[in-house]
Amino acid sequence: MKSNQRTSTIGLALGSGASRGWSHIGILKALLREGIEPDIVCGTSVGAMIGASYLAGNLEKLEEWVLGSTRTDVLRFFNIKFTQSGLVDEERFKRFLHGYVAAEDTRIEDLPRPYAAIATDLDNGREAWFREGPLAEAVRASMAMPGLFPAVNADKRWLVDGGLVNPVPVSTCRALGADVVIAVNLNSDIVGKHSTKRRPPPAESDNEESKGMLQNLKQATREYSNSIFAHHDKPEDAPRSFFAITNAINIFQDRITRSRLAGDPAEIVLSPRLAHIGMLEFHHAPEAIAEGESCVQKALTEIHRLVGKA
Asked: How far apart are the C-alpha atoms of 44 and 167, rounded to whole Å?
């Protein structure tokens, strides 16, 4: 329930960050427990997905799925045939979005609060803001990381991940009318601030399905899937290709985020400390969600003061 003392229009800018984005769930839960409901929700990439799920009334359902998911569940989303459009099984991903984020017929203009998903126009590099139309399609475009997800065609434009141009969409919240923005930056500690040495995650139960999936992966796919779940732990060896790609993405997202936040700072910036979680280590959802809740608790006094509830 919203407080009668509310004096500000609150915008929530949920940033990009792949598997670290599960912390958005914890942040939303903690804010809502305090009676702080955002009036405007904008998201980039995984932030667009979490924000959409919240406004569509599916956040609890999505949380249940992510808390119960395993590395094997994540691998099911990847197409080992290496299609030209990307590595993600597009149809499986669509089914996931329709089941846990937004039904196929859910439209942005029908949501209870203003919402925008940010994507990047692949032809000219400009931001594309989804303010109307099918919600799941907007999320898919915002999350279309080149090489992993296929680009999405919308209004005769080919669109890819919004994190390429606006990783934390504070500017979008402002444009939609927010005068206090709570921004979530998932990129604050991902470059050069954690050890590259890390033991691989514990093996999962050896059920027949998992064995069959792993045994059928081609050599290139084995290297790829191993890279998803491990950091580069031998400095003397050349980094694996996927490690190099993900670290390159981390570097430019960090630089772009710093630049955008410097030019259009938010009143409150929440920065979950999740550098130890790799880009596609989605099975670390419990600690990511817990860290999101912890971030809110640490900033609660300032949040209450700025939104007019102190």
From this structure: 6
Confidence (pLDDT) at 146: 83
Rounded CA gap, 146 and 161, in Å?
A: 7
Distance, CA of 40 to CA of 186 (rounded, Å): 19
Cβ neighbours for 260, distance < 8 A, ≥ 6 positions apart:
166, 167, 168, 170, 171
Alpha carbon distance 107, 9 (integer Å)? 23
Selecting among 16, 53, 142, 161, the annotated active-site residue is 161
Alpha carbon separation from 26 to 33, 215, 258, 286 (Å, rounded): 11, 36, 23, 9
The angle that helices 46-55 and 23-33 make with each other, rounded to 10 degrees, is: 40
Q: Model's pTM, two decimal places?
A: 0.81
Q: Environment class of residue 127 by beta-carbon count within 10 Å: exposed (0-12), middle (13-18) or buried (19+)?
A: middle
Active site annotation includes 155: no
Task: Please tell me the predicted confidence (pLDDT) of residue 81.
Answer: 53
Instruction: Read off the pLDDT of residues 114-134 as tens digits, 9 standing for 90 and up.
Output: 999 999 999 999 999 999 999
Which residue in 16, 19, 23, 45 is the catalytic one? 45
Q: Range with the lowest mean pLDDT among 16-25, 162-171, 239-248, 282-291?
A: 239-248
Dihedral sign (CA 154, 155, 158, 164): negative
How many residues are listed for the chain in this entry?
Answer: 310
For the question of residue 171 being annotated catalytic, the response is no
End-to-end CA distance of the chain: 16
Query: Is the separation of the CB atoms in 285 and 50 below 8 Å?
Result: no
